[in-house]
From TrEMBL:
It comes from Bryocella elongata. Transmembrane segments: none annotated. InterPro entries: DNA_glycosylase (IPR011257), Endonuclease3_FeS-loop_motif (IPR003651), Endouclease-III_FeS-bd_BS (IPR004035), HhH-GPD_domain (IPR003265), HhH_base_excis_C (IPR023170), MIG/MutY (IPR044298), NUDIX_hydrolase-like_dom_sf (IPR015797). It is an enzyme of class 3 (hydrolase). Keywords: 4Fe-4S, DNA damage, DNA repair, Glycosidase, Hydrolase, Iron, Iron-sulfur, Metal-binding. The keyword DNA repair applies. It holds the Pfam family HhH-GPD. Residues 52-210 form the HhH-GPD domain. Adenine glycosylase active on G-A mispairs. MutY also corrects error-prone DNA synthesis past GO lesions which are due to the oxidatively damaged form of guanine: 7,8-dihydro-8-oxoguanine (8-oxo-dGTP). It comes from the Bacteria. Its EC number is 3.2.2.31. This is Adenine DNA glycosylase. Its cofactor is [4Fe-4S] cluster. Belongs to the Nth/MutY family.
Length: 415
C-alpha cells in the first residue's frame, strides 16, 4: 500500500485572486444559506450576529438573534438596558463575557460616539470586545471595506488550499492573514448595492462551514477544488481531548399562595465561568450517592463534558404575605436583593426573592441542607419570571425539560 505523503512545507504556489474570487462568489450566490442577518443593511445587526456566532452553532444563534433584536433593536436600546436583561437574552449561547462586552461597547458608542458605530476596521477595534476578526467582519459586510476576515473556517480553507499542515504558529498565522488579504477584491470607489468585499468574506466562512469542514470535507463540491494543493489529502490535527465531570444540582420548589417559586443561587462574582449568573443550587456528589435523580443531562462547556444529575424537592409553602427566614441561609438584606435584581422598579413587591426556610421538625431531612454553606447567595423567584432572568444555559435547559419553565415560542423574522 502506497504511503500518502504529507503536504509540502515549501513555499506555496501563488493563487490567482481574480480566478479564486470568481469561482468562490459564483458558488456562494447559488448555495449560500438563508440566514436572517444576511442582506440586512444595519451595521448594528451585523455586529450583533458576528459576536453571537463566535464559537456558537448557527442554529442556536438564529433564535436568539431574532429575540435580541426585537428586545434591543438599536445600539441605544442595548446601551440603556441593564446587564441582567442582556444576560437573560444571552442565556444558552454561552461565553457570557461576549454579552457583557457587547453591552459595554454599546454604552461606549452611545456615550462617546453619539450613537454612531465606527466605519473602519481600525476604528472598530477601539470598541470593548472587538478584535481583528469582528472588526474585519463588520467593516467589510456593513461598510464594504476591503479587509479580510480570518476565523477558524477561513484558516482551515486556506491551509488546505495552500497545501499546509494545520499549525497554530505565528508564522503560519501571518501567512494565512497575508493570503486572505491578497484574495479579497479592492473596495469599490463608490458604494453600490453590490458588496464584493463583504460577500467574499461571507463566502469564505460559508465554504469552511459547509464544504471544507474539519472532518470529511466535501471536496468534490468545492468551488476552488482545481486551485487546491491538497484536494482531500490534507492531514487533520488531533481532536481536542474532552474532560469529563459529574455534577449535581437541586431543583427546589414551593408555593407562595397561588404562585409557584423556584430557588436559585447566584454564581460568585469571581467565577471563571458565568460570573454572577443564576443557577440551580449545586450539590456535593457524595451527598447524592445512591440516590436516583429525576433527570440526567449532558452539557458541554468549552472542552469539558458535564454529566449532570438533577434532584428535586418541594418544600412547605407559605401564605401569600408570610416570609420565613432561615439561619442556615443568609438573610436577604436590601443590599443583597439589589445585587440579585439590578432593577427592582420592574418587579412587583411580591416578586422580590426570599431565602429558603428550614424544614420543620416533622419534615424528612432534605437535600436542601446538603447545599454547601458557602452557597449563601440564594433567592426565590416566581416561575413565571424565569425566562427574563440571567440564568445559565444548563439551568435553562433543565427547567425547560422538567416543564418548570416555558419554552419560548419562535419569534417572527426581523425584516
Amino acid at each position: 500500500m502506497k504511503k500518502r505523503s504529507s503536504p509540502s512545507l515549501d513555499a506555496p504556489q501563488p493563487l490567482d485572486p481574480a480566478v479564486f474570487h470568481a469561482a468562490l462568489l459564483k458558488w456562494y450566490k447559488r448555495h449560500a444559506r438563508d440566514l436572517p442577518w444576511r442582506g440586512v443593511d444595519d451595521p448594528y445587526a451585523t455586529w450583533l450576529s458576528e459576536i453571537m456566532l463566535q464559537q456558537t452553532r448557527v442554529a442556536t444563534v438564529i433564535e436568539r438573534y431574532q429575540e435580541f433584536l426585537l428586545r434591543f433593536p438599536t445600539i441605544r436600546a442595548l446601551a440603556e438596558a441593564n446587564e441582567d436583561d442582556v444576560l437573560a437574552l444571552w442565556s444558552g449561547l454561552g461565553y457570557y463575557r461576549r454579552a457583557r462586552m457587547l453591552h459595554r461597547a454599546a454604552q461606549f458608542v452611545t456615550r462617546e460616539l453619539k450613537g454612531k458605530l465606527p466605519r473602519t476596521a481600525e476604528e472598530l477595534r477601539t470598541l470593548p470586545g472587538v478584535g481583528d476578526y469582528t472588526s474585519a467582519a463588520i467593516a467589510s459586510i456593513a461598510y464594504g471595506e476591503s479587509v479580510a476576515v480570518v476565523d477558524g473556517n477561513v484558516e482551515r480553507v486556506l491551509l488546505r488550499v495552500l497545501g499546509r499542515p494545520e499549525d497554530k504558529g505565528a508564522a503560519t498565522r501571518a501567512l494565512i492573514q497575508e493570503t486572505a488579504q491578497s484574495l479579497i477584491p479592492p473596495q469599490p470607489v463608490r458604494r453600490t448595492r453590490a458588496n464584493p468585499c463583504g460577500d467574499h468574506n461571507q463566502a469564505m466562512m460559508e465554504l469552511g462551514a459547509t464544504i471544507c469542514t474539519p472532518r470529511s470535507p466535501l471536496c468534490l463540491q468545492c468551488p476552488v477544488l482545481e486551485l487546491c494543493q491538497t484536494r482531500g489529502e490534507h492531514i487533520t490535527g488531533e481532536r481536542t481531548q474532552m474532560q469529563s465531570r459529574t455534577v449535581a444540582h437541586l431543583l427546589v420548589r414551593r408555593r407562595r399562595g397561588t404562585r409557584e417559586e423556584v430557588l436559585l443561587s447566584r454564581r460568585p462574582e469571581d467565577a471563571s465561568l458565568m460570573p454572577n449568573m443564576l443557577e440551580l443550587p449545586p450539590l456535593p456528589i457524595d451527598a447524592v450517592e445512591g440516590l436516583e435523580p429525576v433527570l440526567r443531562v449532558r452539557h458541554s462547556i468549552t472542552n469539558t463534558n458535564y454529566y449532570v444529575m438533577i434532584f428535586a424537592e418541594r418544600i412547605a409553602g407559605l401564605p401569600p404575605q408570610t416570609e420565613d427566614l432561615s439561619d442556615e441561609i443568609a438573610l436577604v438584606t436590601d443590599e443583597t436583593v439589589t445585587h440579585a435584581v439590578s432593577d427592582l422598579s420592574k418587579l412587583d413587591p411580591e416578586d422580590i426573592p426570599f431565602v429558603a426556610e428550614t424544614p420543620g421538625e416533622d419534615d424528612e431531612l432534605s437535600l436542601l441542607s446538603a447545599i454547601p454553606t458557602a452557597q449563601t447567595d440564594m433567592f426565590w423567584f416566581p416561575a413565571t419570571r424565569l425566562p427574563a432572568l440571567a440564568i445559565t444555559g444548563l439551568t435553562r435547559k433543565v427547567l425547560q425539560r422538567l416543564g418548570v419553565m416555558q419554552i419560548p415560542k419562535p419569534v417572527r423574522r426581523v425584516p
